[in-house]
Amino acid sequence: MTLRLADIVQSLAGAVHAELLGDPDVLIERLSTLEAAGPHDLSFLSHPKYLAKLARSAAACVVVAPASREAAISRGACIVVDDPYHCFALITQIWKRQHFPETAPHIHPSAYIDPAATLAPGVSVGAFACIAAGAVIGAGVHIAAHCVIGERVVIGADSRLSARVTVADGCRMGERCIVHPGAVIGADGFGFAPHDGQWVKIEQLGAVQIGNDVEIGANTCIDRGALQDTVLEDGVKLDNLVQIGHNVRVGQHTAMAGCAGVAGSASIGAHCTVGGGAIVLGHLRLADHVHISAASVVTRSILKPGHYTGLFPIDDNTAWEKNAATLKQLHALRERLKQAEKSILHSAHIQEKS
């Protein structure tokens, strides 16, 4: 299946201002990277440092910024936009809609839907899915095979749950959310009271509240609150295998990469990023626009926007990099210090003799 360049640009109208330079009737067969693109592929240049790759690329057309216009024209057709990466993301959505159209709404005969559940028009339910009493499923929602939707769950319109997703009792999800396979929303938080050498379970009486346009990766777990709800605000993006503890609050449009973990009752602001494998300890607060590098451990609240990195302790990223560079030279500095000590002792010994 192919798309004309002119049709792709037309589909972008209203979202971005895109200028097509070149033959509008060129047929695009696939989307690709600059390196792998062939003569029927569409690619993009996200940064001027990749200009050499642009010159070598065999792509039929490349999405570029205005600064790269002349370099792109010299090699062939191009689409000029202010933000090529954003534009290419929109093109991938256009491509998916054209090449992978949604099937008509359908409820599989093996699915169980409690008579007390409410399904709006256009809901799809896959094989062996289970929807419990009191659940309210919005229009156009897609629930794939083996999903479990608990009692009184609310799922907003046009959300999509992939296979084996569990949404536990009382949890709420907004519109246009995407949940990937195996995610668990609303399992009990890790709450226990120590008593006489044993652990006494604290029942988790809250739920999980998820805003609109949230995406949750495969096998990610979001625990329900102990007393109040765990909250993910609009536009939050979670990668695979992320752990969100009970009573955590994540601000709008914050993104977390794979294997990140947030312990109970932490509060993370809006427009933050948390790198892969990073940990935020419980009861801490991160201000808006805080960015945590991969594998860092956040051991204190961070109330100033910025980029932070490190293990022991976390610090402003620039300061941490300087200290890390020094740390790499620690062994050499130790050897130099030992030699200096020997030299001083040797000089002192000679002076004693004289």
Give a description of the structure.
The protein has 354 residues and is α/β, with parallel strands linked by helices. It contains 6 helices and 39 strands. Strand 6, helix 3 and strand 7 form a beta-alpha-beta unit.
Write the layout of secondary structure elements.
Blueprint: E1 3-4, H1 5-12, E2 19-21, E3 27-28, E4 30-31, E5 41-44, H2 51-56, E6 61-64, H3 69-73, E7 77-80, H4 84-99, E8 112-113, E9 118-119, E10 124-125, E11 130-131, E12 136-137, E13 142-143, E14 148-149, E15 154-155, E16 160-161, E17 166-167, E18 172-173, E19 178-179, E20 184-187, E21 192-195, E22 198-201, E23 208-210, E24 215-216, E25 221-223, E26 230-232, E27 237-238, E28 243-244, E29 249-250, E30 255-256, E31 261-262, E32 267-268, E33 273-274, E34 279-280, E35 285-286, E36 290-292, E37 297-298, E38 306-309, E39 315-316, H5 317-328, H6 330-353
Parallel strand pairs: 4-5, 5-6, 6-7, 8-11, 9-12, 10-13, 11-14, 12-15, 13-16, 14-17, 15-18, 16-19, 17-20, 18-23, 19-24, 20-25, 23-26, 24-27, 25-28, 26-29, 27-30, 28-31, 29-32, 30-33, 31-34, 32-35, 33-36, 34-37, 36-38
Antiparallel strand pairs: 1-3, 2-7, 21-22, 38-39
